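In the design runs reported in the main text, the only information available to the sequence generator was the tokenized backbone. The following block is the verbatim input for one such run; it is reproduced so that readers can re-run the procedure and compare outputs position by position.
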């Protein structure tokens, strides 16, 4: 029997520099030289899938591809999209115990919430589920929930709303029962009543302008800033704060830090900041 030989595509220093530069210029993600092996291994399947002989050809193809799909495919593989429901639950506790009571007192609600770097949707769907749990009657016109990401693949997953059971582990069983349909022993799908609450769109946080019609009450940008170098991070943060309502909240990942004074943000508790009132 013939032995199958697994051949590894090698990423040369030159090819790594081309790819790292392209990634930095287009999505702002900084890939230092020590990431070369990681990039080499994460892109192996893409070369095979596209039937390409080497990384330089991949680079050329991406540059020539006006649709941006191949670039998106590559970014998908390089970045970590890992996420799950009720991740960093202190944020959701704050939402329910400190922000929801304020919203409950409003006679007119126009609440807008953005998950910037939403990956496959677990973060914004958790918010949607909590809204359904706490606001009766639910009036769709009062709520605008937006999930955006650079990666088309994760946005498709978000729209489909199908998750393996391990992603739901932090959700209380009664919430799973109420808001998911079990597809098989280990797979669940978010019910349409939750899916319909969220709009998913592709959005590159590196954009020079953030053209949103209205401002947001809360922006969740968690475990995303970690990818950017200081200057890109500062640009993104300035934009995020600009599109927050005065008094609105910014949630970042617990392992991330920001210089809050630069953005006129008030520290509320770890990884929660509030934009100063106008
Ligand atoms: C680890 S996930 C975070 C998901 C979720 N916010 C959480 O904390 O669980 C990071 C996401 O940031 C996205 N991302 C990276 N660079 C981006 C960019 N320039 N614009 C928009 N999204 C980006 C990635 O595609 C990925 O889905």
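Verbatim output:
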């Amino acid at each position: 029997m013939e032995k199958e030989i697994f051949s590894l595509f090698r990423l040369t220093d030159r090819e790594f520099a081309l790819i790292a530069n392209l990634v930095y210029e287009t999505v702002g993600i900084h890939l230092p030289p020590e990431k070369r092996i990681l990039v080499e291994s994460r892109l192996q399947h893409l070369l095979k899938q596209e039937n390409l002989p080497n990384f330089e050809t991949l680079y050329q193809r991406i540059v020539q591809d006006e649709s941006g799909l191949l670039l998106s495919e590559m970014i998908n593989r390089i970045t970590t999209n890992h996420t799950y429901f009720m991740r960093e639950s202190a944020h959701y506790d704050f939402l329910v115990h400190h922000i929801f009571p304020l919203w409950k007192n409003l006679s007119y609600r126009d609440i807008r919430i953005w998950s910037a770097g939403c990956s496959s949707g677990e973060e914004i769907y958790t918010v949607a589920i909590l809204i359904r749990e706490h606001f009766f009657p639910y009036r769709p016109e009062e709520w605008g929930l937006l999930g955006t990401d650079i990666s088309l693949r994760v946005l498709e997953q978000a729209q489909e709303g199908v998750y393996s059971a391990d992603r739901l582990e932090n959700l209380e069983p009664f919430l799973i029962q109420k808001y998911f349909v079990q597809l098989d022993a280990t797979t669940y799908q978010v019910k349409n009543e939750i899916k319909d609450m969220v709009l998913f769109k592709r959005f590159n946080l590196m954009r020079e302008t953030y053209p949103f019609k209205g401002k947001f009450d809360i922006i969740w940008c968690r475990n995303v800033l970690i990818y950017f170098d200081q200057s890109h991070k500062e640009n993104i943060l300035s934009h995020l704060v600009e599109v927050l309502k005065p008094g609105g909240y910014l949630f970042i990942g617990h392992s991330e830090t920001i210089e809050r004074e630069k953005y006129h943000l008030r520290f509320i508790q770890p990884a929660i900041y509030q934009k100063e009132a106008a």
